[in-house]
Design brief:
- The chain has 243 residues and is α+β, with helices and mostly antiparallel strands.
- The protein has one domain (2-74, 115-237): Alpha-Beta Plaits, CATH 3.30.70.2660.
- The protein contains 5 helices and 15 strands.
- The strands form 4 sheets. It has a 7-stranded antiparallel β-sheet, with helices on both faces. Strands 2, 3, 5 and 8 form a 4-stranded mixed β-sheet that branches. It has a two-stranded antiparallel sheet with strand order 6-7.
- α1 packs across α2.
- The longest helix has 12 residues, at 32-43.
- The radius of gyration is 19 Å and the shape is globular.
């Protein structure tokens, strides 16, 4: 199996999750929808091309690990919808007017708690289920010269460094990930030789307690999260140290 090696390094990252009340939570690891969106941005695809993005999402195979563990933080937001400017029609990035209708909530003050991972470094081995287009070479070229700026979950989560680290081959994405040296950062030293990781449930000899269901896929045509799959989570040893 051939795979691209990606490194997610940013002051803030957010991997999406099921919103609970006013909490915009983040998952422990990036999901398939994040990588599909990342590549769609790099390729210059648009939101309206939902079937194309969804088809790419269905082909992705990923294994990820935290080289440097992040810190969980929460960003506190309020918005006063009673302001005069908030009572008028606004414009979205899609160029269509948008305003709130009905109910007392349309003019109240609303709270949002946005969850982030801060100062972490994550490495991913990413492969495709078949060799149709876009193939790994196309995705690699797009990351080298992305059509639009890349971000990790939210538009404010900009990378510190290039996302693409190279490519590698192995039996599966987990085996490939285990061969990639752990990143070293003097300002954010790693603790211990083990790293928290997630990989496909069908990969490796997994214990029952390592398996868990996740909901990390997006219906790109209708713009909501959908789809359940099984993954495995556990600790893996670093391959070797590097400077």
């Amino acid at each position: 199996m051939d795979a691209l090696i990606l490194r997610l390094d940013a002051p803030l990252m957010s991997f999406g999750g099921v919103i609970v009340d006013h909490h915009n939570v983040t998952e422990r690891f990036p999901g398939l929808s994040l990588f599909a969106g990342l590549f769609a941005n790099a390729l210059g695809w648009k939101h309206g091309e939902g079937e194309k993005i969804g088809a790419l999402q269905d082909r992705l195979i990923v294994a990820s690990r935290w080289d440097i563990e992040p810190e969980a933080i929460i960003d506190y937001h309020t918005v006063d919808l009673g302001q005069p400017k908030m009572r008028e029609k606004g414009w979205t990035t899609r160029g269509e007017p948008e305003h709130r209708d009905g109910g007392n909530a349309k003019f109240g003050t609303h709270i949002r708690l946005r969850h982030y991972w801060a100062n972490g470094v994550l490495t991913t081995a990413l492969a495709l289920r078949d060799k149709t287009l876009p193939n790994l070479a196309t995705l690699e070229a797009a990351l080298q010269q992305p059509t639009r700026p890349l971000f990790f979950g939210r538009k404010t989560c900009l990378p510190n460094a290039p996302v693409l680290m190279g490519s590698a081959s192995g039996d599966d994405v987990l085996a490939i990930l285990k061969t990639i040296p752990r990143v070293q950062c003097p300002m954010r030293p790693a603790k211990g030789r083990q790293m928290a990781a997630r990989w496909p449930a069908e990969t490796g000899d997994n214990r029952e307690d390592q398996l868990k269901p996740i909901y990390d896929q997006r219906d790109w045509k209708n713009q909501w999260h959908a789809g359940r799959r099984m993954v495995a989570e556990g600790l893996i040893e670093e391959a070797s140290s590097c400077s």
